Structures are given as C-alpha cells and as structure tokens.
Amino acid sequence: MTTVEILGAPFSNYVRSALMALEEKGVPYTVTPSRAHAPEVNAIHPLGKIPCLKHGDFTLFESAAIATYIDRAFEGPALFPAEPQAAARCMQWVSLLNSSLVPAFQAFAMCHFFPMTADGEPCPDTIAASLPKTRDHLQLLGRVLGESGYFVGGSFTYADIAALPMLDYLKDLPETGTIIAEIPALGAYLAKHSARKSFEATKPPAMAELMATTKAMAREMMQKRVA
C-alpha cells in the first residue's frame, strides 16, 4: 500500500498534530521537510500553508482535514468519537483551538522564535502586549481540562492532539512556563499526555537548536524585507 507522505517543517505545531494522528493510528509515513510557500506546498495548498498530505494520487491540506482522512482511511484507535454528541464536542474544541486559542499562543511564541528585531532578541514590549490574552487562554484550558484531563469525556481524541504540540512549546518558554506551572490541571494534563508514544515519537528538535533555526529564518526574512 502507498505510504502516507506529510509535507511540512518538523517544528510546526500543526505538522506535529498530523504526525501524532498517524502515530496514534499506527500508520507508516514519511516526512518531506518543506517550508510554507515552497513549490511542493503551493502545488497542494492554495495559501501555501503546512502541513500537506500526499497518499498516492490523493492530496490534502489543513491539519484537521488530514486527521479526519487518517482516522477514516486506516484501522486503529479512533481519533474522533463515533457518538454524535461526543463527535460534535470534539470538533467544537478543534475549531476553537485552531481558530482562536492556538493562533494566540503562536503570536506569543513568535516573539521568542521569530523576534524580527534588529538585535535578533525578543522584544519585551511585544511579549508584554501578547501575554494577557495568552494567560487568559491557558487559564481557560486549565478549567476545561481540570475535570477529566481530556477535552472530550474520558478519552484521548484529536482535540487533545490539536492542543498538545503548542502547549509543549509554551511550557518551555519562560513567561508561559511560569503560568502553566501555576495552573495545576494544565501541568497535570501535559505530564500525563507527554508520556504517550505519539507525543515522544514526534518531538521537535531541542529548544536551543530550534531557536537557532527559527532566529536564522527571521534574519533571512528581515534581509529580504530590506532588499
């Protein structure tokens, strides 16, 4: 059978969500390292975003759509509940995560990973401006996850997969790491699910290596702006 191919940068939280979905289902796959807007990505995604999926002649974009395909095309543990209300609840959280919560988290994380400053270091004012919304969203997740440690009932679903990669980054950044440590339910959630095989198998490069890579990309983008 044709192997699933994922196109994207390994450090992207959305790419990692797609890879975690494949790991949870036990589906063999390959990763083609690709940046957003690379020719091979533009050929699939109309806006040049990652991840993209190729499976034989079939192509697909958007992480939630990719997870849906993986869940329905392959045997293995269900990523989306079958029961109608639980399925709707799962998609409710996936939608909120991908449309509001994760983008806010990304905006904060970008201050560290892609500082876009003259000296290449994070701007304290930019961090301070983005931190209140980030804190509010993390506290919201702490309240939601406090009862069962899952987004939907007592089961691991794609809603958890959509949240975990970004939370994994935030716990290692100084300001958000402190906030997460102050929210016991969120810290317990991360500790519990970081032991999953799918989480371990898809971990991005170490933080120091990742920071060096993304800051180099930021310098490259700034040079292009000047040019």
From TrEMBL:
Keywords: Transferase. Residues 83-221 form the GST C-terminal domain. SUPFAM superfamilies: GST C-terminal domain-like, Thioredoxin-like. It is an enzyme of class 2 (transferase). The keyword Membrane does not apply. InterPro entries: Glutathione-S-Trfase_C-like, Glutathione-S-Trfase_C_sf, Glutathione_S-Trfase, Glutathione_S-Trfase_N, Thioredoxin-like_sf. Its EC number is 2.5.1.18. One of its GO terms (molecular function) is glutathione transferase activity. Pfam families: GST_C_2 (PF13410), GST_N_3 (PF13417). Residues 2-78 form the GST N-terminal domain. This is Glutathione S-transferase. It comes from Rhizomicrobium palustre.
